[in-house]
TrEMBL record:
Gene Ontology terms for molecular function: acyltransferase activity, transferring groups other than amino-acyl groups
Domain N-acetyltransferase: 29-174
Gene3D superfamilies: 3.40.630.30
Protein name according to UniProt: N-acetyltransferase domain-containing protein
Phylogenetic placement of the source organism: Eukaryota, Metazoa, Ecdysozoa, Nematoda, Chromadorea
Highest taxon listed in the record's lineage: Eukaryota
Organism: Acrobeloides nanus
InterPro entries registered for this protein in UniProt: Acyl_CoA_acyltransferase, GNAT_dom
Amino acid sequence: MISKNSSFFFEIRQKFSGPLIMKSLEYEIEINPSKSYWSEIFRLVIEEKWFNTPNDYQIWLKGFSKEQFQLFVAIEKGTGNFIGSVTLTTHELVNGEKISCVGTFILHPEFRGQGIGLTLFNEALKHGATNKTLVAVPSMSDKYASKFGFNVIGTKIIDYYAKCSALKLSSLLTDSRLKITDPSEVGWEKIYAYDRSITGMCFRGDFLREFFSQPGAYNKVVLNENNDIVGYCNIRTGPDNILSIGPFYANSVRLFQII
Ligand SMILES: CC(C)(COP(=O)(O)OP(=O)(O)OC[C@H]1O[C@@H](n2cnc3c(N)ncnc32)[C@H](O)[C@@H]1OP(=O)(O)O)[C@@H](O)C(=O)NCCC(=O)NCCS
């Protein structure tokens, strides 16, 4: 699908050793284009040392409706070359409000610094809910705040890393009253209900099922003696065997440690 007003035209000056050469670039913004664009986005994302997997785009498409999820891709006219991307995922909350999460904002290095990123971002912001949220790299944080007002929740997110070889499995906590089991044994409806009670997000059940079921995902759900869910954890395998933990919820800190 191609969004409205999606054709842009401008000029890039390319300076070679000889005279200045003017080269024109025309591009359009496509929404949820073919899956082949994801491999390019994924490559760039990994270069930035962010975490994604080759399956993510497919999971988003399967797990969310077109109204819930859009990948905006700037594509060079004529060649079909990838220029840049940004995603928007809209969640409806139990209180009836909606919130859209902006992500995967990245341009091919060759096209950076020419105003395309900002145009693409502005195009994406026209969609989704009025309330929007994002996680910024430090160099962009003030810019998002000053240009678009992304300054309401100033949470600082810290990434923690651990080497699996340094983990001491012998010091893990256990509790014989808990049952640690697979999501399929618990049933997805029960898992969605638990997830909703924690996140306040409705309608992300299909996404959770796809996310948990992807290749390279390891997950467990924990039940108490009453068979109530008291936590769950998902771990995904990324490039270079890096593991990413989440979503990971528990009813208490102790349960969190056990899970
Ligand atoms: C960040 C990025 C997507 C911007 O795209 P771009 O095409 O290079 O940016 P533009 O040429 O449109 O930007 C023009 C100006 O607006 C800023 N800008 C771009 N997008 C913006 C946005 N969404 N909000 C606020 N400012 C923005 C740029 O930083 C630049 O500022 P400057 O003039 O102070 O340098 C691109 O540089 C990139 O891919 N960087 C690496 C990945 C990354 O850090 N992504 C951001 C993750 S939070």
